[in-house]
Amino acid sequence: MKWQQLPLGSIQTNCYIVENPDRSCLIFDPGGDAKKLINLIHTRGIKPLAILLTHAHFDHIGAVDEIREMYKIPVYVHKQEEKWLGDPALNGSQFFPLIEPLKVKPADHIINEEGLMKIADFEMRVYHTPGHSPGSLSFYFENEGVVISGDALFQGSIGRTDLPGGNQTQLLKSIHDKLLTLPEDTYVLSGHGDVTTITNEMDSNPFLNGF
Predict the structure, then answer these.
(1) Start and end of every Metallo-beta-lactamase domain (predicted)?
(2) Contact between 137 and 129 (Cβ < 8 Å)
(3) In the CATH scheme, what is the code of domain 2-204?
(4) 129 in helix, strand or coil?
(5) What's the first-to-final CA gap in the chain, in angstroms?
(6) Domain ranges in the chain?
(7) What letters, b where the CB count within 10 A reaches 16 and e where it falls short, cover 6-20?
(8) In angstroms, rounded to a whole number, what is the distance separating the alpha carbons of residues 189 and 7?
(9) What is the separation of C-alpha 168 from the centre of its chain, rounded to a whole number of angstroms?
(10) What is the pTM of this model?
(11) Which helix (DSSP H) or strand (DSSP E) does residue 14 occupy?
């Protein structure tokens, strides 16, 4: 399995494309710049199977409808943010003056619980990691040693908790109970910034020291 980080949209949110040897792929958090993403998919000759959202803030969902319609693929989101896609107050787009209020069509599949998830030949474990937002999810590919953490955990930082539904205590608990229990050499593919590892964050992340 291969993965590629692609910063998209007005605040360069990391979209991830996870690809199998058969050239099929999953798209995580297409936050904007749909044409850029489509061009990459076309150039690589890969076939998208689904869009998965770590959460439904505007900067993670900006290109969802265009990509979904282009490739006729389903969208997955956690049940606690099912209504956020079409509500600018919930997805945060109405609070940013330079962003037009964003309304995305309803998701095709609602994730109700944690556990093993399969899409075609892709297999991942879904963790509910709330705190940055109520329905934040992390997707762990055990065989590849990779977790897509959305805005829960960053290199040297954690997600903001001042938006609707944010809770720092809950976020720290999610990180401690779900992410820091993964193998220490696991790569953390965050929603913003550089790739890091669990061990790096355990050793040097100031927000996690003493928790």
Answers:
(1) 12-192
(2) yes
(3) 3.60.15.10
(4) coil
(5) 34
(6) 2-204
(7) bebbeeebbbbbbbb
(8) 12
(9) 18
(10) 0.96
(11) strand 13-19
